[in-house]
Every structure is written in structure tokens, then in C-alpha cells.
């Protein structure tokens, strides 16, 4: 067997091992970030529980000043929908699917570009005795084989988590600046 044949066989075995390892990775992902904000939950709710309020501090909205967006469905609450199209952050939609006013909001997050994905997002507010509120932002969804393979090389928790951290800091700045 020639050296080239040995190299090709070795690369083939390495590729098969990589694919086999990717197949063993979890079938779901979850990203979560928390931040305590010096504001009561009632003051944060309009910024977290309604899409127009959310987009005042949405880190993805801030990444592309040329982003095209539209609101549809219910004016607020369940059924309220936000669609976007952007070269920088892709194309997709966000729709409120559940709410517990003043405490939590659940959303369906659908991406069309640069890749198709269907995830769930939630914002939960936990009031603290000192009048502050812990805000928890989570996103979870299925991890198909391509996601599992990419996850070997790209840490989604770190990548998306940084955006969540930036967004929560944006929220803090707005909420704590209110009188």
C-alpha cells in the first residue's frame, strides 16, 4: 500500500470517527443567561413580555441598522408576532405563545436563513426581596445531525450566550435609567 493510500484510509477513518462522535451528541440544546436588575418585575414586564418592548433592547436588532421588520397578529400578548429580514442576523420570526403576566413569557423562534431552525425562547422574571428582579433568558430546541457536527467546532452556548449577556445588559441600562 502506498503512502497516499495510507493517508486516504487514515483520513477516511478519522472522518468516520468524527461523524460517529457527532451522532452521540445530545439531541437538544439549551442556552441560558441570568442577570439581576435593580427594578421591580412590574417595571420590566413591558420590556420583556411585549415584542415592541423587547426590541428596544434586543441585541440582534442592534446588530443591523438596515434590518427590515414587521409586527403582525395580536397587538400584544399571545399571538403577537415579529418578523425580520437582515443580511447580518438572517431571516425569521418570533411569536408569543404563552404568558404569565409579570412573571414569564414563552415564544416560538423560527429561523429561515441562514439555516432553518425552530426553537423555544423564554423570559422569566423572579422578584427579589430587595425590589430587584432576576431575569432569566433561555432558548432551547432540537439539535439535528448538522447542528451536532457543527457543535464539535463551534460552542453555541458561548456564541449565543454572549448575545444574551449583551441583551440583558441593554435591558439593565434601560430599566435602571427609568425614574
Automatic annotation (TrEMBL):
Record InterPro entries: Polyketide_cyclase/dehydratase, START-like_dom_sf
Top-rank taxon: Bacteria
Protein name according to UniProt: SRPBCC family protein
Lineage, highest ranks first: Bacteria, Pseudomonadati, Pseudomonadota, Betaproteobacteria, Burkholderiales
